[in-house]
Amino acid sequence: MKQMRIPLYVVLGIAVIGIIFGSFFDLQISSAIASSTSGFGLGVSIVGPTIGFMGLALFGGGFIGLAIHGQYPKWAKALFWVAGIASYVVSVYFSGTEYFGVNGFYGNIPEWVGFIIAAIPLAGAEVGGYFLFRKTENKYAWVIYLIAFAVLLLTLVGGVTGLKAIFHRPRFRTVSTTAIDFHNWWQPCRDYKNLMQAYGLVSEEFKSFPSGHTAEASILLVTTTFAPLVNPKLKKIQLPCFIVAFAFVMLVAFARILAAAHYLSDVSMGATITTIFTVIANEIVIHNKRLQETAK
Question: Given this model, what pLDDT does residue 293 score?
Answer without folding.
Answer: 60
